[in-house]
Fold:
Amino acid sequence: MNKRPTLGLSLVPILFLIFLLVINVIIYKEDASYGPNQIALLLGAFVTGVIGHFILGTKYQKMEDAIISNISKSLSAMTVLLVVGSLIGSWILSGTVPAMIYYGLKILNPTIFLPVACITCAIVSLSTGSSWSTTGTIGIALIGIGKTMGIYEGAVAGAVISGAYFGDKMSPLSDTTNLAPAVAGTDIFSHIRHMVYTSGPAIIMALIGFTVLSFFYTGSNLDVAEVDKILNVLDSNFTINLWCLLPPTIVLVMIRKKLPALPAITIGILIGFLVAIFVQGDMIERKLGAEYSIKGVYALITSVSYEGFSIDTGHKLVNKLLNRGGMSGMLNTVWLIFAAMIFGGTLEATGMLYAISESILKMVRGTGSLIGATVATCIVLNATASDQFLAIVVPGKMFRAAYEKYKLHPKNLSRALEDAGTVTSVLMPWNSGGAYNSSVLGVATLTYAPFCLFNIFSPLVSVFLGAMNLTIEKKLEEA
Structure:
């Protein structure tokens, strides 16, 4: 019979994992999530298993069964992630992503630079599903433009990051937007729809804040040289028109009709490739050259699906933004989920996860405090584990049973995980998110952090709605 683990013993694997994650950040910096953290999770699972077997008397078979059960629950999400990789490649080939970037940059205005910069980055991040790619490309350009206009760099970086993280949160192409519902046990489109209630007010308040800040940080002359350069590169390599926006429009309609994620995304891929064939014919012909034929087009579509899109535009920032996608590009996140499920399975089987959750839940007195506890745990994990993925996975596994106990729909949990886990990582200098963004933007984390209005408002709105019991949906009883 299994011994009941104490809280102290249950925290040993967590502290060991945090120690490894901190070491990974020191050694690998922003690359810690591309392999080292997965190894840390597996080593954490091993330590958990050793403690469970030799101290608590947990049989190996029980731990293996829990691991297999955990992995099987996440297979649907991992499948969606792989298909999303193909969707990204398809939408770049079709000109959808380039068109959204193009139209986003067109709306730049020097008199209200900060809110427009935020909106521009939101559009780009929404279309690419990557806050890091957005800040590392368009964000760099906006920082340069802001400097030429004499706008405080901390305010510009805050606007860039706010927009990038809003788009990342609300995009079905995002790693974290797929990860959160996978851990919580819901589907991605239900998750995105539910986030509108927190992310919507947060981005509106952020835009109001940036508009007010614009009176204090007003740009004088907009040096459009860098923007024009990017626009010309996009225009010369792709056919930019409204047909390029057809794929996301159709997917949005399907989301509205509540079509399941997998068929909706698959249709989005097919529509993207059709648009590519009929709209981006010149670009495809240039890429294939002498191999331009039905066979060549099929080979291109296939390679974009599994390998991602690749092009040399002659512009480093544009290349970085567009050379991505494909199923292979999602394998790292799939590996992360896989490793996290192994770690979570061993914690569950040994009873350690229950012991930790039980200790936290003793302070919970209802729905509001449960959401508050979830948000607080995500922020603490971002501060200690130094990785936004772990700040989603670990609390997700810890609180899943508690949300079931309170008969709350799992999308409440997935929303809380993203409202805090995804967005607060960039506010901490030692976190991979903070380290990456301060590095690429050339602005210290503590300089831009007070201006990351969306990232600050998002968890606050989440806690407020939880405390007021607003937009909190109960789980329907199964017949």
Q: What stands out?
A: The first helix runs from residue 7 to 28. The chain has a mean pLDDT of 84. Residues 81-329 form one domain. The CA atoms of residues 202 and 457 lie 5 Å apart.
